[in-house]
Design a protein that fits this description.
2 domains; eight-stranded mixed sheet; Aspartate Aminotransferase, domain 1; single chain; Aspartate Aminotransferase, domain 2; alpha/beta; binds pyridoxal-5'-phosphate; 12 helices; 16% strand
Amino acid sequence: MCHDDELPDSTGYNIEVTKPHDPARDGPFSRRLAWTVPENRLAAAEREVRASGRRVFDLTGSNPTAVGLPYPAAAIAAALADPAAVHYQPTPRGLPAARAAVASDYARRGAALAPDRVFLVASSSESYALLCKLFGNPGQALLVPEPSYPLFAYLARLESLEARPYRLLYDGHWHIDFATLDFTNVAAVVVVSPNNPTGSYLGRSDWRRLAELAAEAGVPVIADEVFADFPIAPARDAITAVAGCPTPALTFSLGGLSKACGLPQLKLGWIAASGPEALVEPALANLELVADTYLSVGTPVQLALPRLFEIGAGIRASIHERVLRNRQRLSERIGASSPCTLLPAEAGWSAILRIPETMSDETWALRLLRDASVLVQPGYFFDLRLGATLVVSLLVPPEDFDEGIARVLSAVESV
Ligand SMILES: Cc1ncc(COP(=O)(O)O)c(C=O)c1O
């Protein structure tokens, strides 16, 4: 919670998107960039603390290649060294063998998908960009869940769209607040399942209702499933693969090597289309035109993809093990009488801690950094509205995680 006298100096999205365009101030740059991104107080404090030479226990790291996990470097390099990569075959949808490998990977998660429903892209962020180009007209809205991942405002704005939030409600589980879904002048509706940072899957009844509303409004659904491979404790009605669910709406499931195989540096993601045949076919044909304009996926990574999925299974297992270990330790460390609560999570790489509302979560994060050298993210970064909350990454190396959490709990418990 933010008290009036200590409002954070930016919104959760950390972006001011309503600023009218002013050529005198904004210069020659596109209106899409007419946003202000003030350095938030936490980033400024982090700079100061690091400059002082103090060690910081960083509980925010989300780059799997930078948290001390074992990576089979030689095997990855060998997979990328196929001499066939000297030939360029421009294919807007992606090379057929690579698309077949993605379809097989969906089958591993129980979703039957034909390879011709798969499009390869450079990343999930690029998937959003291509789909916004495919469906959006300038000024339209992209419906996005809140709380969620804070990049949507930027992704939408760069496509001349506006991110329009709909709320997720928490009552021990996360649900869509359907009263906040406004389908007026909408390009597409985004669901993130599992969501980041709430770790919540879309439940079956929410999915049915959302897909029906979207189909009625003629609005496509973008289902971001990048964390689907990291279950923690899925609820019984959780949808663990939107791609495999019957849907009356034109639906695009997003995934990528970045999370599923812990390989963000290889820049390969995918879009899997489903829904009524009469909508899917023309959508794919038009998406092909958009993708053909960029042809952004490199040949070596496409040729390597079947092998990368094999190698990635091991990396995924070590990420999953790390996440489960840290979460388990966190839950053990928080005693029954602690004023700190660990919110349940069904999946993902993050944990949410609810802490006493004696000050705003931003002030908590600043104090933890300055007084205890621990870096955490305040819940307002994600538009969590559950009193004071902190978000920690479960990817952090175990020793740093344990020490960082001990410091957070000691600060919170001494209030
Ligand atoms: C929910 C969600 N979707 C997409 C992405 C971006 O994924 P990619 O690296 O494939 O662009 C992230 C990154 O953290 C994310 O949290």
